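Observation: inputs received (chain + magnesium ion).
Thought: call the complex predictor directly.
Action: predict_structure
Action Input:
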Amino acid sequence: MKAKAVFFDIDNTLVRKSTGHKETFMEAIMDIFGFDAKINYSNYTGKVDKGILLDVLQLHGISEYEINAGIEDCLRRMREIYKLKAKQKLASTELIEGVNQTLDALKSRGMVLGLITGNVKVIAFEKLKLAGIIDVFSWGGFGDEGVNRSEVALKAMNRLKEKHNILASEAVVVGDTPTDIIAAKNAGSHAFGVSTGHFSNKELQDAGAEFVTSNIHDIVKVLK
Ligand SMILES: [Mg+2]
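Observation:
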């Protein structure tokens, strides 16, 4: 497949076994809204941080008025808390095998690389720093810019056009959940699935992925 740009999801696509993110949600909610949030994180694969926050607040019966008044403060607090955790080594993550070689190969071909992630932007870059790949990425679409992944993907595609004059149809999005695949398609882009998270190749294919693999490095062979 011909492509000029490749976007990557972060969790379970570039990195895994991340710690500190759930605690960041809970501590920020406690600081801003003053209650102990119960978060079943497994319900939220493929979701974006602002959408998760909204859902958790609604589930705990917080009024729309209070949510609107506090949600941006809560996101700001999340940025501060995660940064501090990363600094204090209370947040960690692990690079998935094959990622370094894949990014090097795509970079050497002059491809434009970006992120489409559910993580709050600051948390996204802190995770990449912890994984040792911070120098590769500088922009994309992030989880504090929309309440669902399709909104975030659309933001990234608009930036791709503005910054690089490349169309969504000339880009590929790589992700590990059906939500990544559907969001990429909604934004007019191509989608590849990597089964390094909780979903199988078959599930990603059924969601509309044009290529699926359990080893991210395989995408180098498919992209031209
Ligand atoms: Mg993911």
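Thought: report the result.
Final Answer: The mean pLDDT is 96. Residues 5-17+93-222 form a domain with the Rossmann fold fold (CATH 3.40.50.1000).
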